[in-house]
Amino acid sequence: MNFATGRFVDFGGSAGELCTVLQRRFPTWSFAVVETTAMASASQNLRPSISFLDEMPEEFDVFYSSGTLQYLGNPEELWRKALSRTTRHAYLARNAFSRRKRFTVQTSRLFDNGAGPVPDGFEDMPIFYPHQTISQSAVIKIAEKAGFDLVAHVNDRNGGVIGTSGKVYGADLLFKRR
Predict the structure, then answer these.
(1) CB atoms within 10 A of CB 127
(2) How far is CA 41 from the centre of its chain?
(3) CA-to-CA separations, 121 to 35, 44, 117, in angstroms, rounded
(4) Which helix (H) or strand (E) element contains residue 1?
(5) Element (H, E) at 45
(6) Tens digit of pLDDT for each residue in 114-159?
(7) So what's the pLDDT on residue 81?
(8) Burial classification of residue 143, based on how many CB atoms lie within 10 Å of its CB (0-12 exposed, 13-18 middle, 19 or more buried)
(9) Which residue, 60, 139, 141, 166, could crosslink 9 as a Cys pair with Cβ 3.0–4.6 Å?
């Protein structure tokens, strides 16, 4: 983010914690979080200086997504769409990669998901998420075809990839438009 101004999109950014931190460091940038309609509506009051949307904007400078693609029905299609709207950089963090597609169900406690207060009336309980791995080589090929080069690859920063006997691995990927 070495430009004076820009538009940053956090796809799947929950209540905007990352954007809030970045906004302090880059006050001339605009920040948007793309989330479900319910999360976007609830979060706008929590952080009014950040835009919360239920669809991606038409154009932005930086696309960022952390640990989200593997929860989508068609992550490759979303990645193509995001890159078609990104003018400078795209960063994928906390990915679950595998050489062959694997489907699992992730379990966690409701209150362990995200920061901030839990609304009244909710009880902490196990919740279940469908989860699929994605192909790192496919992600890179899609980016190359869209006019991006992979400029940084950081292995094993994904704390969410555990107990997989090496069949699933984490990596963060930074792409720059040519």
Answers:
(1) 13
(2) 18
(3) 22, 21, 12
(4) none
(5) helix 37-46
(6) 666 676 788 899 988 888 899 999 999 999 999 999 999 998 655 5
(7) 98
(8) buried
(9) 60
As a whole number of angstroms, the distance between CA 87 and CA 54 comes to: 20
Is the four-CA dihedral 24, 30, 35, 36 of positive or negative sign?
positive
- Rounded CA separation 175/88 (Å): 8
For residues 86-92, average pLDDT:
98
Assigned token pair, 70: 């593997």
Backbone dihedral region of 132: left (phi > 0), alpha (psi from -120 to 50 degrees) or beta?
beta
DSSP 81-136: HHHHHEEEEEEEES--B-SS--EEEEEEEGGGSSSSPPPTT----EEEEEEE-B-H
Collapsed DSSP state (helix, strand, coil) of residue 177: strand
Q: Which residue has the tokens 């969410």?
A: 160
Q: How many residues does the chain have?
A: 178
| Joined tokens for residue 37 | 């309609």
Q: Which residues contact 15 (CB under 8 A, 6 or more apart)?
A: 33, 39, 42, 43, 46, 47, 114, 115, 116
Q: What tokens were used for 131?
A: 């989860």
Is the distance from CB of 47 to CB of 19 less than 8 angstroms?
yes
Q: Which two tokens stand for residue 124?
A: 């902490």
What pLDDT score was predicted for residue 44? 87
Strand, coil or helix: 50:
coil
pTM: 0.88
